[in-house]
From TrEMBL:
Name of the featured protein: Lysine transporter LysE
Membrane topology per record: Multi-pass membrane protein
InterPro entries given in the database record: LeuE-type
Primary localisation category: membrane
Originating species: Embleya scabrispora
GO CC terms of this entry: plasma membrane
Cellular compartment(s): Cell membrane
Amino acid sequence: MDALSYLASFALVAGLLTVVPGPDTAIVLRAALVRGKRHGFATALGIGAGTLVWGAAAAAGVSAVLTTSRVAYTSLRIVGACYLLWLAYGLLRAAWVNRYTDVDVEAASAGGAKAAPGLWSAWGRGVLTSLTNPKVGVFYMAMIPQFIPSGAPHLAFGILLALVHDIEGMVWFAAIILGANSLRARLRRPRFRRALDVSTGTVIAGFGVTLAVADN
């Protein structure tokens, strides 16, 4: 196969992975619903940046440690699980102790400086969510070497494959963000905001527990 065929084959496999729900989908959806399109896209771009790092690491062979060293994989898995559980705790605690008001929700919907964290914060949350997910690293380590043509520069082509995955991810996230934007008017209802935090926190906690108890 030529390089284009390798890219197309990888795009098909990565596309299937992209639409499988995970913690990245959960945090992008919540960012879009609560903070708006800009924060949703900032979070998605952060996840994409983390994906590129994993792709470069896999192409360079660095992430091979995750498949050869159980200690390294387990350590990163526990860190990732703790991070997800920390995110979930923040959301569930907010839903439990905060008294949402129409003013607070409208300020968040308007992107008020006091109500919403900055775009860099949203981007950083996306990066951390991606980098602390060892399953992404294992997937890249298993798949990327198989889709690098013989004679092609491993690092450059590996990053190109990760970029293809990023583009697919951004298309998927854009659909989620734009769809969620139509629901933002409902955020004027404090009950909806609380329900959103509870449901998102529960989903992320579930991913965190699953990651913590997973053997591989």
